[in-house]
Amino acid sequence: MQSNRLFEIIYILLDKKKVTASELAEHFEVSRRTICRDIELLSSAGIPIYADMGRYGGISLLDNFVLDKSLISDSEQHEILASLKILEELKYPNAKESLSRLANLFQKTNDDWISVDFSHWGSHADEIDTFSVIKGCILQQVIIEFDYYNSFGQCSFQKIEPCKLWFKEKSWYLKGYSLRHEDFRIYKMVRIKNLKAGSQSFSKRDLSSEPAHIEMKHPFEPVKLKLLFASEAAYRVYDEFDMDQIQADGKGNLIVTAEYPLNDWIYGYILSFGKDVEVLEPDHVKRHILGIIKEIARKYKNAFSD
Questions:
Q1: Contact, 21 vs 35, CB < 8 A?
Q2: Which residue among 12, 34, 64, 163 is least crowded, i.e. fewest CB within 10 A of its CB?
Q3: Peptide bond before 282: cis, by omega within 30 degrees of 0?
């Protein structure tokens, strides 16, 4: 613990140039005496650190000091830069400057090896900006406002305290405290429109008060599905289901067993595979799918009956 604190003290001094012992004590939540002992240890280890007394005094490093890279292994240096690169792609504040500074310090190239884009293919620029706006409002504790379309296509105006961005089941969601419902709610990102940061700030709520069941909260009962997919759909099956849900039948087909909430979405999802899927179980889902197919066939038959 102490070695980590000593290492971080050096980085703080490299970044801020000068700090007081009281500021360091508050940052690390230790006593001022402990910080003074840390400074003595760093000085005895050969780190050119010194303290100025008086009103404008403080702790600082010699201007020409360069951190001894031997304190960090080569693999650790790469891990630090990789983490900062991801933060830079996520537009995290000051990540770009930190990445550039440490890349120079470690004498490593800042390779452009990763790109993070939360939007889907063909999305508009305003959708790409949605994540940046929400992230900024979460960090700065600013209320956000937006129009939200539920699964029935109904639009409502929402005003929430954003808590976190959440990735679940191949989709992005926003968790937040709804001022309208006075409760924690989950919003699917693709259904959020006309997002903007509000003018009000908020105090972060105790997340332990968030209902434990909120992540599983759903008005539909789950159903265990057994689906048979033709080999032509294998590219989607392996993309959209976990490996432990997939079993080959020895004939080139794939059998998937998975549990989903039984609603209109799951019927639409099954039908999106067209002729390449067959519902094996349960029977009531098979009958419902057949009813949908008959209704679709009736509409197209009527279209050509004239």
A1: yes
A2: 64
A3: yes
Q: CA distances (Å), 228 to each of 66, 78, 265, in order? A: 62, 45, 19
Write the pLDDT tens digit of every residue in 267-284: 988 999 999 999 999 999
This prediction has a pTM of 0.44
Lookup result for tokens 């209704």: 295
**Cβ–Cβ < 8 Å for 256, 245:** yes
Conformation bin of residue 54: beta by default, left when phi > 0, alpha when psi is -120 to 50? left
CATH number among 2.40.30.270, 1.10.10.10, 3.40.50.2000, 1.10.3720.10, domain 2-61 = 1.10.10.10
More confident residue, 119 or 231: 231
Residue 43: both structure tokens together: 């000085």
The CATH code that applies to domain 222-303 is 3.30.70
Determine the Cα–Cα distance for residues 233 and 253; give it in Å rounded to an integer.
9
